[in-house]
Amino acid sequence: MGRNSQASKPTSSPPWTISTARQHLPALVASAAKEPQAIYRRNRLVAAVLSPEALDELNAARKVSVGSAFARLREICREEDYQFVPSPRRDRPNPFAPPTK
User: Fold this and answer.
1) pTM confidence score
2) For the chain, which has fewer Cβ within 10 Å, the N-terminal or C-terminal residue?
3) Each residue of 45-81: b (16+ CB within 10 Å) or e?
4) Would the CA dihedral through 67, 73, 79, 85 be positive or negative?
5) What pLDDT is attached to residue 63?
6) Sign of the C-alpha dihedral, residues 80, 84, 62, 55?
7) Residue 1's closest CA among 13, 12, 14, 17?
8) 1-50 domain in CATH 2.30.30.240?
């Protein structure tokens, strides 16, 4: 498979194969500075080359926990003086509960 043989790809440049990536490593690294570069083996994505900034963003996004996301949401609600009013609770049928008589 050559560099131009795959039509759909995640980036705007043609996809890289392992062999073309190996042969043109400086071009691959230069392209990765602009946007992530996908590397394929037998039409299957096997690797990606990212800029250091994109890697930092990815690592930062992975460190966000659900708890910290909710803490940030509570902070935004306080800043905007938003009050969450939950709807009243009501019983719903439970198909897994034994029938009551």
Assistant:
1) 0.52
2) C
3) eeeebebeeeeeeeeeeeeeeeeeeeeeeeeeeeeee
4) negative
5) 82
6) negative
7) 17
8) no
Residue position matching structure tokens 């509570």: 74
Using CA atoms, how far apart are residues 43 and 5, in angstroms rounded to an integer?
A: 10
- Convert the chain into a string of H (helix), E (strand) and C (coil): CCCCCCCCCCCCCCCEEHHHHHHCHHHHHHHHHHCCEEEEECCEEEEEECCHHHHHHHHHHHCCCHHHHHHHHHHHHHHCCCCCCCCCCCCCCCCCCCCCC
* Cβ atoms 13, 35 nearer than 8 A: yes
**What distance, in Å, lies between the first and last C-alpha atoms of the chain?**
69
pLDDT tens figures, 41-77: 999 999 999 999 999 999 988 887 889 889 999 999 9
Q: Which two tokens stand for residue 101?
A: 């008589």
Query: Which residues are registered as beta bridge partners of 45?
Result: 40
